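Subject: Re: docking follow-up (zinc ion)

Dear J.,

Thanks for your patience while I sorted out the input files. As discussed at Tuesday's group meeting, I've set up the holo structure prediction with zinc ion included as the bound ligand rather than trying to dock it afterwards. The sequence and the ligand SMILES I used are pasted below, so you can double-check that they match what you have on your end before we go further.
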Amino acid sequence: MIYISDTLTKSKVPLETGQPNVVKMYVCGPTVYNYIHIGNARPMVVFDAFRRFLEFVGYKVVMAQNFTDIDDKIINQANEWGVDWKTVADTFIAECYHDAQMLGIRTANFHPRTTDFVEDIVNAIAKMIDNDFAYVTPNGDVYFSVRKLTDYGKLSGKKLDELRSGARVDVNELKIDPLDFVLWKSAKPGEPVWNSPWGKGRPGWHIECSVMSQKLLGDMFDIHGGGEDLIFPHHEDEIAQSEALTGKPPARYWMHNGMIIVRGDKMSKSLRNTFMVREAVRKFGKDGVRLFLLSKHYRSPMEFFDAPLEDSSKAAARVHATLYRFTEKYNYPLVPKYDEEMNDYQTRFIEALSDDFNTPVALSVLFNVVRELNKAMDDGNDERALKMYHLIKRVFGNILGIFDGETEKVQRVESEEMQTLDTLIRGIIEMRNNFRKEKQYEMADKLRNLLGESKIRLVDTPEGTKYELY
Ligand SMILES: [Zn+2]
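The structure tokens for the complex came back this morning:
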């Protein structure tokens, strides 16, 4: 049995799907006006690994992840570039696919875009107006009427009166209740527009996920996932909309990942504290970044700074070195026959992931097996080495989407050596510069000569001392 933490019931619950052996899962995706950063990548990696795990234990997973392709930020970016909104959206959707691929994230079954569903969105809003769950203001906006639902706020557990008194209502908004949220935004001059019975305009943000998830996965699918910053108002409003449309919440379970925190703030484009995925993969390797993102339980917040990412990258490099050592030593191995030890490791790994997808515990099992692989190779125990290799690469690696590549093993080992060398040389350069500052030229020259003997030439430039290998 698989247990997951459900945000709605605030408890750990057994996963019971609508259809036997099928998991239908919808995960909110990015608004496409920039490259994706590590904060965007966390839910992508977590739910990608979760999907792989579900498949491994025998589920068929049907997954949808959307692109919000119309939004104020996209329009602003388009104006800045002097192009139309669609150019911006198309550009960053392509870039998102590229970055996701760099991170080993498999494409979902569906990647719906908001603007492909405007007609369905308009129909859904019309239905909510008919059923008195929504109202049209004189300027052509449409709002969802929160007071029609007695239990609005149940996902986030927020107190409505507190929210009401804290809600800021712009003067030009004509809401009945300050918590009412927009379903349709009337046209503003110069903005992209679509037709509707209430005049030209475009969909509000929350309605797209309700409509697209219902259309692609049905009235009630199994898991709705996303970052915990989406709980309120986005997912709260999705529940309100679905209940207004179908009389049911959209999903059986709500799974939310914690935020990536940078010096006390959530990593977000608007706070300008982001670290882009492509930069991270280039610097720390795909497995280093994935290992970092899976090293904490998905619900915990993660402090982000370079050091732990570098640690994950080094840990990944050590595993690669071990796997490489194995492939150097042996020809491509056959699948071993499972024995008690293998079963035991695999059971512990699967049990950890079955308990609310506890990746830190699963990773500790994996690292145990890496140690055992090294030991088996040291001992010349070929059969045992094959078993451990099989577990790491073909079982654990496939489930978590790490250590499953063929091409990067050598390259990462080399680049780890280069990094160590680079640190060493920079340390010696710093020592030499200190000696020079203290006018101890003899010592400074000794260090320069020492590097010279190792075929490392120092070049003093106005920007500081550089080195080259010759
Ligand atoms: Zn969404």
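A couple of observations from a first look. Residues 408-437 form the longest helix (30 residues). The chain has 15 helices and 15 strands.

Let me know if you'd like me to rerun anything.

Best regards,
T.
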